[in-house]
Design brief:
Blueprint (H helix, E strand, L loop, with lengths): L2 H18 L4 H5 L1 E6 L14 H10 L4 E4 L4 E4 L2 E8 L2 E6 L13 H11 L9 H4 L3 E8 L2 E6 L6 H7 L30 E7 L3 E6 L12 E6 L3 H10 L4 E3 L3 H8 L5 E15 L14 H10 L2 H9 L28 H10 L7 E6 L3 H13 L3 E6 L2 H9 L5 E6 L8 H8 L11 H9 L6 H18 L2 E13 L3 E2 L14 E2 L1
Parallel strand pairs: 1-10, 1-11, 13-14, 13-15
Antiparallel strand pairs: 2-3, 4-5, 5-7, 6-7, 8-9, 9-10, 11-16, 12-15, 12-16, 17-18
Helix pairs in contact: 1-8, 9-11, 14-15, 15-16
């Protein structure tokens, strides 16, 4: 549904909605109704990824430590404290009052089991790639204590404990010796502030406040999460009072509906950034234009990032010139910045021997308007752009086969304000996202994860980001802005890391 059609239909829908639904209907029922476009099929975050699953996991699960989004400090949660015995041995003490949703008490054995299961080769957990890099094993050292044995020095242990591993009861995934990786997929037994009441995969999830939760209790009694993939359907439900919260809202819809009495438009920061990855290594063509540094620099100069951020994303979106989010630790913004300058871009192409341009296959899977704007800017400097707008699965397959010369991508770093959350994924040699082919850069990026002194880590990332900018391996574009539509009765706090925390919502 286009913007003008939405505006044309709004008065009729608005009148009907105002007449039919009392504004405080959900508040009276103490039920927060949430819309998610992404299909929810598995409630176990140890076996999922994506932002939607993180949002749900924060409500149904807890971790050893928690992240303060305002200070980026890691605080005790299920853990009460920690102590490094040496650089590769970490003792963690535990609370004795943490309850699972079935009423049983969490034990040190449960914690050890969870982590040891994740790093087992046959677990096939989505979290194993994160924890398996640094964890050898965990042993129980007392009724409320465990000891982590690390493979190597790793300064981000608390981060991974706080954000990736959800605690499970001992034997959850291999009861009776039979492996069942889907054990918690639909009937989740967690330790979080909300427990699962019912779940219809791909349709609806009902959560209820868990009275035995050890931490601060949520203000709202019940949360109903509905899968509504069509943004038009979400809009209609918001206007009729059927839902109280929706996110990833297109800017035009957020502004137009937010201007009515039926919804409030909230816009806040997001750690997601947009960028173009260029095949500097020559995987698609070993002598191709993109292997030339001047060509990659020309592409950077060709992009009107400021206008893309302002008019296509809006809110708090800003242009960037680094291969990270400026709010992340270690993100050096003093690196080379390629200003928007089509004339300089054309001159660089000419110097590189491509004064008449060349064909460029540009892949994209999201934000079609942005992808088209990128294609238009590159066409303006003489490139013959073939925009391949596909589903993410198709892009992933082509990238894994090294068949992509350039692609428009985004990365949210899992809400982690640390350059490590983006650098390894995109610039190590064991990822198909790295099209630079720069082994020295990969070694430098990984060395930051083996450095425990924060100042030294920052210096390593500064050096690596400087090289990425000088060589124009990427064309960084902009940060994203998180647009929400919420019920006027709902108080939904926005955190600086852009991660929605529905458990902190309350009624006004």
């Amino acid at each position: 549904m286009n913007y003008f059609l939405k505006r044309a239909l709004a008065p009729a829908i608005l009148s009907a909605a105002l007449a039919a639904v009392p504004a405080s209907a959900q508040q009276a029922n103490d039920t927060l109704r949430v819309a998610l476009a992404e299909e929810i099929l598995n409630l176990d975050y140890n076996y999922t990824t994506k932002r939607e699953y993180i949002i749900l996991a924060q409500m149904t699960d807890t971790t050893l430590f928690s992240l303060d989004p305002n200070t980026q400090e890691f605080n005790p949660a299920v853990a009460t404290g920690y102590e490094y015995i040496d650089e590769k041995t970490l003792d963690v003490s535990l609370r004795d009052d943490v309850k699972f949703h079935d009423g049983s008490t969490l034990t040190a054995e449960d914690v050890a089991y969870t982590y040891n299961w994740i790093v087992r080769e046959d677990s096939e957990s989505n979290a194993s790639g994160t924890v398996g890099r640094w964890l050898d094993n965990v042993e129980v050292t007392g009724p409320t204590s465990v000891r982590f044995h690390l493979k190597s020095v790793y300064p981000l242990v608390l981060r991974d404990m706080a954000q990736r591993i959800m605690l499970r009861k001992a034997g959850t995934y291999d009861a009776g010796g039979t492996i069942n990786r889907d054990a918690m997929a639909q009937q989740l037994i967690g330790t979080g502030p909300y427990k699962v009441v019912s779940f219809e995969p791909g349709q609806e999830l009902v959560l209820e406040r868990f009275d035995d939760f050890f931490g601060e209790k949520p203000a709202i009694q019940k949360v109903v999460v509905r899968n509504l993939p069509d943004i038009g359907t979400q809009q209609a439900e918001m206007m009729s009072g059927g839902i109280d919260w929706m996110f990833k809202v297109p800017l035009d819809l957020a502004e137009s509906l937010g201007a009515t009495p039926l919804a409030t438009h909230l816009s806040g920061p997001d750690l997601r950034i947009a960028f173009i990855v260029l095949d500097a290594a020559g995987y698609t063509d070993e002598n191709g234009p993109l292997t030339n540094t001047k060509v990659r620099q020309a592409i950077n100069h060709a992009l009107n990032k400021a206008d893309m951020a302002k008019y296509l994303i809006g809110g708090s979106a800003e242009p960037i010139h680094t291969a990270c989010h400026p709010a992340q630790f270690g993100c050096d913004v003093s690196v080379k910045d390629y200003s928007y300058d089509p004339d300089t871009a054309r001159a660089l192409l000419a110097d590189a021997g491509y004064g008449d341009g060349f064909p460029l296959e540009l892949w994209a899977y999201r934000n079609k308007a942005v992808a088209e704007a990128i294609a238009a800017d590159l066409t303006a400097i003489g490139l013959d752009v073939d925009l391949r707008y596909v589903k993410l699965e198709s892009l992933n397959q082509a990238r894994a086969s090294q068949d992509i010369p350039a692609y428009f991508g985004t990365w949210g770093s899992g809400g982690t304000a640390d350059t490590a959350a983006i650098a390894r994924i995109h610039f190590s040699m064991d990822t198909d996202r790295n099209l630079s082919g720069d082994e020295a850069l990969a070694e430098e990026v990984l060395s930051a994860e083996q450095t425990s002194v924060q100042e030294d880590r920052a210096a390593i990332y500064s050096s690596a980001l400087g090289k990425i900018a000088d060589q124009a391996y990427w064309a960084p574009l902009f940060t994203y802005s998180a647009n929400y539509l919420v019920s006027p009765d709902l108080d939904f706090p926005l955190d600086p890391d852009g991660l929605p925390r529905l458990q902190n919502s309350s009624w006004k």
